């Protein structure tokens, strides 16, 4: 690249990332992005189409179906008509809603307290929380603790062991510390307490980061399966993810549909794909509504200053 001379001196060239993009570069980026989107959407398309296909169409295709033919909703009607899958979906929804609300309440209160420099012992509490990110008790002590508290075979075992994420607390704390101290001081002068300041000032100004953190917690609870397999022995209490593992990996049809699969009325592959779609729908629906908050919420909460 040539350098323009200013006052007899060669002006420094601009960095590469500040140069105007060329057509070839734009075309290459478009092709790469299109390929990435196709690599993501094509498997989802196959899963959805196969779940909507009849047994004859699946047998003719030899498995997964790419071109939709003989569309039928029998698999979804049977899965949502009662039985194991419907019960597991309700369990997952309940655990996700209750767990997310509880985790958000604890994380917001903890982050707000740690963001106030004058709060008692906040430095030692912060260091203790940071230590838990690098050192853990391990699986066996955790299981023994849950068992000693009498939480096995209860829904609390799906919430409490993973209720709080230190990373999320740190992101919230950094965001809260960026709120103007003048607003906090003026509220204190007007006689507002800490809880009132949190509810009336901090939370309304932090909707972006709260939406992002709530999505993180919700996706974590919705996708969790390990705690249920570890702490629950009653199959009727299993969430949707564990039922999906049972159907997809172990090739076991859900309770109530085994007879239809054996008689050929329902394709086992269609049932597996339908359960996968049911597990993906909530996250796919919720993500676009929170997407606009990701950049503001995460960057502002991650960078101090």
TrEMBL record:
Pfam families associated with the record: BPD_transp_1
How the protein sits in the membrane? Multi-pass membrane protein
Q: Which residues cross the membrane?
A: 31-52, 88-112, 124-149, 155-176, 197-222, 269-290
Keyword tags = Cell membrane, Membrane, Transmembrane, Transmembrane helix, Transport
GO BP of this protein: transmembrane transport
- Quote the InterPro entries the UniProt record gives: MetI-like, MetI-like_sf
Q: Pinpoint the ABC transmembrane type-1 domain residues.
A: 89-284
Keyword check for Ribonucleoprotein? no
KW Transmembrane (keyword) present:
yes
Name under which the protein is recorded: L-arabinose transport system permease protein AraQ
Q: Which organism is it from?
A: Streptomyces fradiae ATCC 10745 = DSM 40063
Starting at the broadest rank, the lineage of the source organism is:
Bacteria, Bacillati, Actinomycetota, Actinomycetes, Kitasatosporales
